[in-house]
Amino acid sequence: MSANYLDGLNDRQREAVLTLQGPLMIIAGAGSGKTKVLTTRIAHLMRNGVDAFNILSLTFTNKAAKEMKERVEKILGSNEARNLYIGTFHSVFARLLRADAPKMGYPSDFTIYDADDAKSVVKTIINELNLDDKHYKPNLVYNRISAAKNSLIGPEAYQVDYYLQQEDQRASRPLTGKIYDMYVKRCYKNGAMDFDDLLFKMYQLLKGFPDVLAKYQHKFKYIMIDEYQDTNPAQYEIVKLLGAVHENICVVGDDAQSIYSFRGATIQNILQFEKDYDDVKVVKLEQNYRSTKSILHVANEVISKNKGQIEKNLWTDNVEGDKIKLVRTNTDNEEGKMVADSIAELKLRNHFANRDFCILYRTNAQSRSFEESLRRQAIPYRIFGGLSFYQRKEIKDFIAYLRIIANSRDEEALKRIINYPVRGIGKTTIEKVSIFANDQNITFWEVLERANEFGFKGGTLEAIANFVIMIQSFRVMLDKHNAYEVAVQVGKSTGIVKELFNDKTTEGLARYENVQELLNSIKEFTETPTEDGELLDDKSLGIYLQQITLLTDADNTNDENSDVVKLMTIHASKGLEFPVVFNVGLEEGLFPSGLSINSREELEEERRLFYVAVTRAKSRLFITYANSRYRFGQLQQNEPSRFLEEIPEKYLDRSYAGGGLRNSASMGGGGGASWGTMFDKRKAPGAPAGPSRPAQQEPRPRVISSPAATNHTPSANFTADDPANMEVGMDVEHQKFGFGKITSMEGAPNNRIATVMFPKAGGEKKIMLNYAKLMIVRQ
DNA sequence: CGATCAGTCTTTTTT
DNA sequence: AGACTGATCG
After folding, report:
1. Is A547 known to be catalytic?
2. Which residues contact A331 (CB under 8 A, 6 or more apart)?
3. Is the pTM of this model over 0.90?
4. Are A174 and A165 a contacting pair, CB within 8 Å?
5. Which residue from A87, A100, A220, A686 could staple onto A92, CB 3.0 to 4.6 Å apart?
6. Average pLDDT rounded to a whole number, residues A470-480
7. Which sites bind ATP (predicted)?
8. Which nucleotides in chain B lie closer than 7 A to a protein CB?
């Protein structure tokens, strides 16, 4: 009865929680207790008589939604919270669309295409138009389509939009609009929506069907939106429509943490919220409960370099804490080693657990050197992001069967498994089916069903017929059996499970286990009733498929009890916090990304990203960068990131050498051979080697290949030397060309080109030192 | 038809 | 360096 859940709030937080009516904007600085405010506010609404069914709460990740629901339940001490409409934009809209999709000609259990499926459709269309897919890159075209949808521009509008047409002309891809048009029609024919459709179609539904709009306007009397700074125009318009009647809209966000513009998000949504409604109340949460003063100082300094922010002053009562440790290494591998050594040492000296550490990088590709070094130290780790469980090949293959069972129009799924496992339906046949389907304007599946009418004969016809019968038998089964039982049957009938079981390689074993895990997850799903008690029987398969498509890696694998070091991109770390954070790869071209330094807007977004990275840390923060690293197979020399210059020297500790076990960062510069790590990396293949393959107890990292990818090098101790040290007259070794002598040298200091005489490899060759790997044999 | 191999191309972040 | 594609051979 008593509202003692209000007791733990500070004044600002309480004000936000108590403001229930009218438009409200909460500017929530990093670590300011945003989730607490959101959940308490929902609880407070419910305590004040608002029915959970009338509250819509949109979050950025599924995990955040789940967490909020649990916390509301805890505050209220009841399970009423299960009736809240809470989830990501995409998952909530998918659920709403299920009810009304037929109004727009889609099946209610429409398939949701993930980015891979969507790109595949785009590619098919590009090929059908006989366009060169090297000019019309499916990726680029798809991104363009995606951006259009997120701005609510349909194919018709796209093709008459002067500005967009100009852009496509300039990129010499004038037919992009045409592809867009065909893409939309093809998805429709396939009974499928892509990620962006979940927003676009939702908008069209509300716009095109006033009764539906009225229904939801009435239903959602209170709307809350988290991470508002990362919403796009489509989301903005939908929210505006839904909230138009009651105007009880509460948005929460932090303009300083807007990092998703590449996905169509626009920071303008939050900057202009005050102008969108009359009498907007603004509450700023400025007290940070997460980080030390040192960390917060750095964060504030960094973000102050951006222009046009909502004014705020983030402060904390926490201790001063250690200075930020700034560490420079020679190479990316040394960076990895330094981080792993430091983790080992901190565990030893300060009794940190593995789970207290997080390594944050700008791009997924950077994980490699950390994986290697952590393995060498036998420190268990887990990579978040990248492929989600459901995007692994073996899982996607299996799921493709379920998809085609649930929706016979799903051409992408069909093409994926029509010949997996091999059953004699090859490329030529698929091509033919495709052409018939397009000509007759029927689905791929229908052509298969009526294969004899289209002139297929002999073995091919038989193979098709058997396939069709098998899929039909699964569909029949679905009437009396749940999704799990059908899935098990699929595994049996197709022979997939058996095939994987018989593959005794490490990868094969992992794949087999993954499929078993998939079956378990289906079982769990079929045995758990939905939130609003929806009956699951016949529809369950379609709903299951829709849900898993919207899951990300970070959503489902976040078991707090596993004690592992976490690795992820900064984007993926949004909303999380860790006692010790390593922010790595602070180099020009990498962070800020070389693709984002050409406009003020892009650069500022990179800076916000850095701000996000810094504010993830609770007590200790390391920032690292390397003089050189391999990128796309080439050795690159990098300048330190410009962001580092923006941090006042007084907040930095540059003396940290890394782990204390060995000084891995012998300050580059002059002197020839240095590099403490030069030798331990490549224990010659035959050498007795210590823990050559540690970490058996690893928490099953994703299926990664080759633990110790040893290059088959001419010399056992081959090491690429720093180009800066090379001079005319030196004897050198090249991985491919063998031994040679440098006869002359040219080019700019940072891009030197050596002419090398290789007696055994056809004489003189010009070698770009930044790219090729040369080792100095004799100076 | 399908598996293997060499040659080509990429080059940010993700619901 | 790694993924992907196209060509070649069984």
Report:
1. no
2. A626, A627, A628, A629
3. no
4. yes
5. A87
6. 92
7. 28-35
8. 1-3, 9-15
